[in-house]
Design brief:
By secondary structure, the chain is mainly beta. The protein is 4% helix and 52% strand. The two termini are 66 Å apart.
Length: 395
């Protein structure tokens, strides 16, 4: 299977090649840079942190969800005020919008990023006083976004700064007055992509069993005459199959399989791998643990006409077999940026119901004089509610 293309933003600087990542939480720490402190005047204004909402989105367990990797910047809006940039608004994939400075008025422009587009480099210009005057950003594919290009010529220019370790921008931090941005620094995280490596079936851990299933007709045949009578009987037997897949997650990443059996599926695990279509998936999720089921089981209602002997009671019995098997597996995904591997363990539960067979049996007698019904001892557990009643009650 090829690479799963949805890219997640997470920090990746801790791992060595081929390490096994236990949890996406290990990746979620934002990285605060101070490489641009020499530009602007950080002694003026009050502190701002545009990573606040991103961090809250990533770590807020109080709202009942797991960490949210993939919370990338969707769009950036920059507000211009005369000879300077006066405010910035960042729109995230999951988190609430975050703003800094004065985000009002009509002099603004928005740049929207594609789902797989990330900001990789930055260049800033400040006025001689230190206020932010111009902002240049570049994405990983070289697209340039520019704001504040026509606001005077007295400024200082920083060098282009490209983020290290395959990291991408998630916000800014620094100092600001109401409509004057005095210093700009960067908050970044890294990238992780889920590449499907393979699936391991743990055949040495298979557990299987079979169980005979006995069902009885929903009605009985009562003959209170001295002639053989015919009676139509109905019997429901469960047939078909059900396959469910229950799998674990690493926080925020759900990986499992959708399972569809073909029409030639046979009983038990012995043919499960050959008759099933396995579709491995990887997706963002706030669910820890999940399951999917392909259920094609149904009730087959058998209708038969049987001969009931004089002064007897007859019933139908159905017998089929339920085969079950649990088949453990492990799916492995790899992050190409650092070689870290994610393993998800799951169990496929295969249930197959064989075709049923039906039988009929005499389960009691009818008193010729009174019509009293007597159920034989061996059938009392199933049909004992008829015992002691009268044939005429059912006609």
């Amino acid at each position: 299977m090829g690479k799963y293309l949805f890219t997640l933003m997470v920090g990746i600087w801790f791992y060595t090649n081929n390490a096994v990542a236990n949890d996406v939480m290990d990746y979620l720490t934002p990285h605060y840079h101070n490489n641009l402190r020499n530009f602007g005047d950080p002694t003026k204004g009050t502190a701002y942190d545009m990573g606040t909402e991103w961090v809250k989105s990533a770590f807020d367990f109080d709202k009942g969800y797991a960490p949210t990797p993939g919370d990338k910047i969707n769009e950036i809006t920059v507000y211009k005020g005369g000879d300077r940039i006066k405010g910035i608004r960042i729109g995230y994939l999951y988190a609430e919008d975050e703003t800094m400075g004065a985000v009002d008025g009509n002099n603004y422009r928005t740049e929207t990023l594609d789902p797989d587009e990330y900001i990789k480099s930055i260049k800033i210009f400040t006025k001689e006083s230190g206020r932010l005057a111009r902002l240049y950003l570049w994405t990983q594919n070289g697209r340039q976004m520019t704001w504040g290009s026509n606001n005077g010529y007295k400024y200082k220019m920083a060098n282009v700064y490209t983020f290290p370790n395959d990291q991408v921008l998630v916000g800014f931090w620094g100092t600001v007055d109401y409509d004057e941005i005095w210093s700009v620094n960067l908050i970044t995280t890294g990238l992780i992509e889920l590449e499907y490596v393979g699936i391991t079936w743990h055949e040495d851990q298979i557990s299987n069993s079979s169980q005979e299933m006995v069902t009885y007709s929903s009605n009985i045949g009562i003959n209170d005459t001295n002639l053989v009578q015919s009676k139509q009987m109905r019997l429901g037997i469960t047939e078909g199959y059900s396959v469910s897949d229950s799998y674990s997650t690493t926080a925020g990443i759900t990986m499992g399989m959708s399972v569809t059996l073909g029409s030639e599926a046979k009983a038990g695990i012995l043919t499960l791998k050959e008759s099933a279509t396995w579709s491995t998936t990887a997706s963002l999720s706030t669910t820890v643990g999940s399951s999917s089921t392909d259920n094609q089981s149904y009730t087959n209602t058998m209708v038969e006409t049987i001969a009931v002997n004089p002064y007897t009671i007859a019933a139908m019995k159905g017998i089929n077999t339920m085969y079950t098997a649990d088949f453990p597996y492990t799916i492995t995904y790899q992050n190409p940026y650092d070689g870290a591997e994610f393993e998800v363990k799951g169990v496929v539960n295969d249930v197959y119901f064989s075709e049923g067979e039906s039988f009929w049996a005499n389960i009691g007698t009818v008193n010729p004089d009174s019509g009293l019904l007597t159920i034989e001892t061996e059938w009392m557990a199933i049909f004992g509610h008829y015992d002691g009643t009268y044939a005429q009650d059912y006609f």
